Amino acid sequence: MTQPTGRAAAKEPTIGGRPRIYSPGSTHVVGDGFHVRNLFPSHDLDRDVSPFLMLDYAGPTDYPPTDHPRGVGEHPHRGFETVTIVYQGKVAHRDSAGNAGVIGPGDVQWMTAASGVVHEELHEREWAKRGGTLQAIQLWVNLPAAFKMTAPRYQTLVQERIPVIPLDGGAGSLRVIAGEFNGVRGPAATFTPVQLHDLRVKARHGTTLGFAAGWNVALFMLEGRATVNGSEPVTEAQVAVLGDSGAPVLVEAQQDATMLVMAGEPIHEPIARYGPFVMNRQQEIVQAVQDYQAGKMGHLS
Ligand code: MN
Q: How far is the CA of 119 from the centre of ligand 1 (A)?
């Protein structure tokens, strides 16, 4: 990290407070192809992780070879974005807005459901035939009321487009999926300011991350073990919730650690949630159900 210039007597940044650490709150199977552990909305964290709504950690799960790809069939979404990050395996997507794509290790799919789409999320056919380990995250990012009913959008962010930044002192690396890190911008277009980073810190190394004051910050540990601002170690499938102080976050790994860094400007609006629909008011949920049933979110061809 470079020292800020033009600021007299710049002090070393002090490290922020210790995070609250949560283990998965529930375990379930989405369709027949995603064995997930849920971090939120379990634990009633809405205000502390806004604009993020849901974090499901899928796998790592071994699937035997099959000619009938597992996954989750046709279902709707309205009012937010689904972000799928694949670490192992391959996932195929198809939606009623006419978008389709396959994402594999290192790739990210950023789907804006907004006014409504119907889609399916399946193991990719050829990958399913061979079988293998699936490891992925699905993160839901809320939209402010002003954008909930805008047109759906779809971004496939392949690995080659996601910048990799080496950390100081050979501590590891950080991939910028969305937002900015050390002046490097990630490829995802977002509706509100969001940082989403794939962080790898090597054992016995540390790194300090900076965030804007007022932004909520959370770190999810996929693999490994690290302390965060001197906390108890955060271990596999746990999330460290840091709040919105904007204080620097010190990550010190005891074992090679793979983390998803989530930060964003909170959306200060009411949340009405029912299954795949996330709106502001209950009446809008009723409308979403009616619109879906009336076919207004389209169908898969
Ligand atoms: Mn879905």
A: 6
Q: Which residues, at least 6 apart from 124, have a Cβ–Cβ distance to it below 8 Å?
A: 69, 90, 91, 92, 102, 104
Q: Give distance in angstroms: CA of 96 to centre of ligand 1.
A: 12
Distance 152 CA to ligand 1 centre (A): 13
**Ligand 1 mean position to 239 CA, how many Å?**
22
> If you measure from the C-alpha of residue 161 to the centroid of ligand 1, how many angstroms do you get, rounded to a whole number?
24
Contact between 137 and 174 under an 8 Å Cβ cutoff? The reply is no
Radius of gyration of the chain (CA): 19
Q: What angle do CA 160, 161, 167 make, to 5 degrees?
A: 85
Amino acid at 9: A
pLDDT in tens, the chain (301 residues): 444 444 444 444 567 889 999 999 999 999 999 999 999 999 989 899 999 999 999 999 999 999 999 999 999 999 999 999 999 999 999 999 999 999 999 999 999 999 999 999 999 999 999 999 999 999 999 999 999 999 999 999 999 999 999 999 999 999 999 999 999 999 999 999 999 999 999 999 999 999 999 999 999 999 999 999 999 999 999 999 999 999 999 999 999 999 999 999 999 999 999 999 999 999 999 999 999 999 999 999 8
**C-alpha 299 – ligand 1 centre gap (Å):** 14
48 in helix, strand or coil?
helix
pTM over 0.85: yes
Instruction: Give the Å distance between the CA of 75 and the centre of ligand 1.
Output: 6
Tell how far the Cα of 83 is from the centroid of ligand 1, in angstroms.
Answer: 10
